[in-house]
Design goal:
Layout: H1 11-26, H2 31-38, H3 42-55, H4 78-89, E1 102-105, E2 109-112
Antiparallel strand pairs: 1-2
Helix pairs in contact: 1-2, 1-3
Length: about 120
């Protein structure tokens, strides 16, 4: 049995396959054969087996996938949006750049100071 890409199967189906893989591993079935039967990759099978050894059958189940709802920042990278405006508002004609830093002024000038 070959399963589709692991990212495209449901969590319930993935958990079922992980439980099946652990059961086969406990019966000393070779890893290659478990891969062919379940469609899981060897790292996934070994991870499920290790989880079983440390926490029992309930530890084999995967957690929820992806980011939880509402975890995205309200305004992504707010300091990066303000930086160009602050640099263009600067009246200094001599760029003040610490060693190893890059300064961008407008879209034309780029200063890199080594020492």
């Amino acid at each position: 049995m070959h399963t589709p890409n692991g990212k495209r199967i449901s969590t319930a189906e993935l958990n079922r396959l992980r439980l099946q893989a652990v059961a086969l591993r406990l019966r000393k079935v070779p890893l290659k054969q478990i891969t062919l039967q379940t469609g899981l990759t060897p790292p996934t099978i070994l991870s499920a087996y290790t989880c079983f050894l440390t926490g029992g059958w309930s530890a084999v189940h995967t957690g929820a996938r992806g980011r939880p709802p509402g975890s995205r920042r309200a305004q992504p990278y707010p300091d990066l949006r303000a930086a160009p405006r602050a640099m263009m508002a600067s009246k200094s004609s001599v760029p003040v750049v610490a060693p190893g830093e890059i300064e961008v002024r407008g879209s034309v000038q780029l200063t890199y100071r080594l020492q």
